[in-house]
Amino acid sequence: MIAVWAMVLHLSYLPMRVSRYGRYACALLVVFLSLAGCSMKLPDPPKPLPRFAAAARLVPPDRMFTLSDGVAIPARVWKAQEQPRGILLALHGFNDSRDAWEQPAPFFAGQGITVVAPDQRGFGEAPNRGEWAGSDRMVQDVREEIAILQKENPQIPLYLTGESMGGAILMLLMSKSDAPSVAGTLLLAPAVWNLGLGADIPLDVLATLFPHHLVTGRELPVHVVASDNPAALLRLYFDPLTLRATQLEALRGLVGLMKQAAAAAPQIKGPLLCVYGDKDQLVPSKAMAKVWETLPKGTRLDLISGGHHLLLRDKNGKQVMQDMLSWITQPDSFLPSGGDVSASTWQAQNPAKPEGKWFPASWLDGLAR
């Protein structure tokens, strides 16, 4: 089904001898007919072969955050192995879960930094699994989690980090006029991209007509590499908390969030590190270059050579962890990877330009899996 939706977006800009609205109407008719066979029930987790059973383990949460509306948000916690010198509130990406941090978290815990990784509302084991809570509600959730952690640990610096969608949520939060006071924000391949009307119009129509219909991305004849680490991808695939299908309403919400985050970049407050990999196939380089140009003065930029979208799960993920740790503990020093120097060169080679009017199906395939 997702391939059909991507086709809608391509059709909207084909040089056909009909009006733009005529192309939308034809494309949407195709999708309408295709939706008849779409499911509205989230698929069950796949059952792995015995040798992959560990990848399908369900790790129970270590704590719950009770929020102002009564909702309980589960979270995993990796406590600092010594006297804590910082707490890292870590947000996962789209269709991911709190388990996104199980690979890097022990590294930070070993360096005296406690990692707290909640499921975001609608994902993992959080309430309303598979449904889009809305960016305002998701931002409010994080704000309340910050307040809880700061009340519990008034003397320990609190840092925020977010991967992909999680980074976009933090961009919105920290751009508010009443942004919380934290020690710093670390963005890892934040989901930032204004797709334009070519994506917005057909997606808005489809999500309005069929908000709960599911798309999977399996129909697309493309291959996206989110990480070069097969073991990490295996865990992500078999993890029972991973969402394997996406409601059209959630997809519309994600697209809107990306646009909001890109627009919010100039207003972000507080110390900021933004990390991006030059092999990221989900957030285009032009979109990231445009955001990098608009981030506040003083933002530290970090380009990871060979880095994919899931930076911390790559084979060289420890390089990213070391950069993050260095920025937290020695914010005025050069990053160990040399990524801050590489970022300057990369920016010169990838100037921000107006983004194209087409929507690559490969990006959507990777994000919805």
From TrEMBL:
Pfam families: Hydrolase_4. Residues 83-315 form the Serine aminopeptidase S33 domain. It comes from the Bacteria. PANTHER family: PHOSPHOLIPASE-RELATED (PTHR11614). This is Lysophospholipase. It comes from Acetobacter oryzoeni.
